[in-house]
Amino acid sequence: MATEILMPALSPTMEEGTLAKWLVKEGDTVNSGDVMAEIETDKATMEFEAVDEGIIGKILIAEGTEAVKVNTAIAILVEDGEALDATPTTAAAAAAPAAVEAPAPSAAPVAASVPAAPAVDVTPDWPEGTELVQTTVREALRDAMAEEMRSDDGVFLMGEEVAEYQGAYKISQGLLDEFGAKRVIDTPITEHGFTGIAVGAAFGGLKPIVEFMTFNFALQAMDHIINSAAKTLYMSGGQMGAPMVFRGANGAAARVGAQHSQDFAAWFMQIPGLKVAMPYSASDAKGLLKSAIRDPNPVVFLENEILYGRAFDVPKLDDYTVPFGKARIWRTGTDVTIVSFGIGMQYALEAADKLAEDGISAEVIDLRTLRPMDTPAIIKSVMKTNRLVTVEEGWPQGSVGSYISSVVMQEAFDYLDAPVINCTGKDVPMPYAANLEKHALITTEEVIEAVKQVTYR
Amino acid sequence: MAARKSVKKTNVSAEELTEHYRSMLLIRRFEEKAGQLYGMGLIGGFCHLYIGQEAVVVGLESAAEEGDKRLTSYRDHGHMLACGMEAGGVMAELTGREGGLSKGKGGSMHMFSKEKHFYGGHGIVGAQVPIGAGLAFADKYKDNGRVTFTYFGDGASNQGQVYETFNMAALWELPVIFVIENNQYAMGTSQQRSSVTPDIYTRGAAFGIPGEAVDGMSVLAVKDAGERAVAHCRAGKGPYILEVKTYRYRGHSMSDPAKYRTREEVQKMREERDPIEQVRAMLLENKYATEDDLKAIDKEIKEVVNQSADFARTSPEPALEELWTDIYA
Ligand SMILES: Cc1ncc(C[n+]2csc(CCOP(=O)(O)OP(=O)(O)O)c2C)c(N)n1
Ligand SMILES: [Mg+2]
């Protein structure tokens, strides 16, 4: 019985890939476990193994083909004695019920909607005429570290799988090659321990970058981040502190459940002595990370797995930095202010696009850093629009948005024409099921709904 | 094929050996099917397969008694099947459906069964170790004679909380068996690159905890060691460490290209030390089973696994209200 061999999904976020190489040809016999092909995902080149035994009847997708969608038939497997061109029975995947949902919405490719250049209120982050290069957030982060490591030999990177494996999410790709094992250090799985060692190294005059594979694992190291790194400058009466960066993926990934999908922005934002950055675009990822590494204080740098593969314009400058505490206005508007940061910006910008079609003009502010926070930029905007919606992925109680609401209430109460609405993730642990996960996350529709509510439309 | 040639006559009964074969094969076929469903996009997120390590959990489960407890990391499908949790319920959890053991809310890494005394499915490396000792604490408190099998990896064995736990478990003589599943790699990091102690079990000595290294590719060796450990714990002598040397054939999770080891290394292990092949050879050598008998078992297992996959595909997605349940008791 001939069966179709389908393009496999090889990572939680993969939707398509390149069929880089066939290692079998038509007529070859394969056994379970034999490598049939090499497939490139956005993160890696993976070997694709046979599950069933049989003979390769026909190769349907030639090697070198890019953007092959998951579940496309790529070859036909026939049984011994069957004609090589036997027609396959419906492959198993095709029999899957239509109810099976595509990966979580957050994983869906969303064009980084760069709104039309706002006319006012925006100081550009780079001089006019600067050459711009489409760069992924992943590359931007790597470039930032590489540049800072070149210019300061006290800067080093440590974490799990950062060196030989090139990073679990491939952020440190190439760094071991360039800087060697002294400065790009694989640690055992022992977050509390290596974070403490990094804090000590910072006391000792170095500038550590600690990569947490994800911030879920930083919980193991919370004591050193908060009690050791954030407070020493104060406790020593200013004699010594911890100039260092804690960075890694934060927030929901796709389908990894309650312990691996959570946004800690609001937690870290609470701590005096810490600085907190949470970039959305690649240029901010680069410019802020460079600033973070130079900063004489401990900086928590919150990245996002879903954004790693997304490309944005990054200015081609020798030393591009973005200051902390300065929001970026992505889009100017008059009817409502939408404030967000990190991946929340994706929903904010999408909502603003759709709202524009309905004649609602939204001003979209990306905070970029949460501590220090550019509250003056928010106040200024609210004074103009008189309405505010905040957008974040984290939980509602004690959210970043609730802090912003209180500031706006105290400083711009008379300017508000409607109560502030905080759009957040749902108040639940992240479920695994695809349909539930979709509902647990914040959506663009919810942002639009909130804007309509505050604008009484 | 050294292992296959050196097959010895055994005094283990045909029944017992056949049962080991069946249990290990169920795990192997189940995991292969899970890999397939992942490739089809029916399973999402991380999915850590247990292929290659089957003898560890099957050997130890055969040393356990009703009421004993177990818990492990995210690499948990094998443990669940071995302690008798329904294949359909496990597979449907992997596809995130209502019929899953956690109603689709836990996923591959997080399943639990009160009935089978399976306490998870833990996603944070090392976190299950003190929790396992805590279960043993409760058993000792209740004086009920139960033991807890606390499984963790070679990578997890570097977490500080493991040693905090060793100290307390020894201090309070808790009936806990620490099972270190040393499959030689923690993601892309080989054990030599992360640890100065080649034999992890020796670290128990600092706390006066007896331990031993065990051939984790031999289900009978694992069972033997398991019985020693259980006897020690049940006699009220405190914790015991089993470092089971094993090997995972697949990548760490589905998205691991596994470039940190050679194909030959994996192939050699598969060909020479495969736990299922070893038992298969023994069954034939000792004339406990014929090729046809084994074929019949293979077929039976395939049927169970296919049914679990059908169930996992057709079970509906959880109702949306489930988003809001089980947050508080
Ligand atoms: C505290 C923590 N740090 C990092 C991770 C990411 N991570 C998941 S599994 C793993 C490797 C664990 O290896 P090991 O303990 O040997 O178990 P194995 O996967 O080999 O079964 C890592 C680093 C995690 N889940 N938790
Ligand atoms: Mg391991």
From TrEMBL, chain A:
<dbReference type="GO" id="GO:0004739">
    <property type="term" value="F:pyruvate dehydrogenase (acetyl-transferring) activity"/>
</dbReference>
<keyword id="KW-0450">Lipoyl</keyword>
<feature type="domain" description="Lipoyl-binding">
    <location>
        <begin position="2"/>
        <end position="78"/>
    </location>
</feature>
<dbReference type="InterPro" id="IPR009014">
    <property type="entry name" value="Transketo_C/PFOR_II"/>
</dbReference>
<dbReference type="Pfam" id="PF02779">
    <property type="entry name" value="Transket_pyr"/>
</dbReference>
<dbReference type="InterPro" id="IPR033248">
    <property type="entry name" value="Transketolase_C"/>
</dbReference>
<comment type="function">
    <text>The pyruvate dehydrogenase complex catalyzes the overall conversion of pyruvate to acetyl-CoA and CO2.</text>
</comment>
<keyword id="KW-0560">Oxidoreductase</keyword>
<dbReference type="InterPro" id="IPR011053">
    <property type="entry name" value="Single_hybrid_motif"/>
</dbReference>
<keyword id="KW-0786">Thiamine pyrophosphate</keyword>
<comment type="subunit">
    <text>Heterodimer of an alpha and a beta chain.</text>
</comment>
<dbReference type="Pfam" id="PF02780">
    <property type="entry name" value="Transketolase_C"/>
</dbReference>
<dbReference type="InterPro" id="IPR027110">
    <property type="entry name" value="PDHB_mito-type"/>
</dbReference>
<dbReference type="InterPro" id="IPR005475">
    <property type="entry name" value="Transketolase-like_Pyr-bd"/>
</dbReference>
<dbReference type="InterPro" id="IPR029061">
    <property type="entry name" value="THDP-binding"/>
</dbReference>
<protein>
    <recommendedName>
        <fullName>Pyruvate dehydrogenase E1 component subunit beta</fullName>
        <ecNumber>1.2.4.1</ecNumber>
    </recommendedName>
</protein>
<dbReference type="InterPro" id="IPR003016">
    <property type="entry name" value="2-oxoA_DH_lipoyl-BS"/>
</dbReference>
<dbReference type="InterPro" id="IPR000089">
    <property type="entry name" value="Biotin_lipoyl"/>
</dbReference>
<dbReference type="Pfam" id="PF00364">
    <property type="entry name" value="Biotin_lipoyl"/>
</dbReference>
<keyword id="KW-0670">Pyruvate</keyword>
UniProtKB/TrEMBL annotation, chain B:
<comment type="subunit">
    <text>Heterodimer of an alpha and a beta chain.</text>
</comment>
<dbReference type="InterPro" id="IPR017597">
    <property type="entry name" value="Pyrv_DH_E1_asu_subgrp-y"/>
</dbReference>
<keyword id="KW-0786">Thiamine pyrophosphate</keyword>
<dbReference type="InterPro" id="IPR001017">
    <property type="entry name" value="DH_E1"/>
</dbReference>
<dbReference type="Pfam" id="PF00676">
    <property type="entry name" value="E1_dh"/>
</dbReference>
<keyword id="KW-0670">Pyruvate</keyword>
<keyword id="KW-0560">Oxidoreductase</keyword>
<dbReference type="InterPro" id="IPR029061">
    <property type="entry name" value="THDP-binding"/>
</dbReference>
<dbReference type="InterPro" id="IPR050642">
    <property type="entry name" value="PDH_E1_Alpha_Subunit"/>
</dbReference>
<feature type="domain" description="Dehydrogenase E1 component">
    <location>
        <begin position="23"/>
        <end position="320"/>
    </location>
</feature>
<comment type="function">
    <text>The pyruvate dehydrogenase complex catalyzes the overall conversion of pyruvate to acetyl-CoA and CO(2). It contains multiple copies of three enzymatic components: pyruvate dehydrogenase (E1), dihydrolipoamide acetyltransferase (E2) and lipoamide dehydrogenase (E3).</text>
</comment>
<protein>
    <recommendedName>
        <fullName>Pyruvate dehydrogenase E1 component subunit alpha</fullName>
        <ecNumber>1.2.4.1</ecNumber>
    </recommendedName>
</protein>
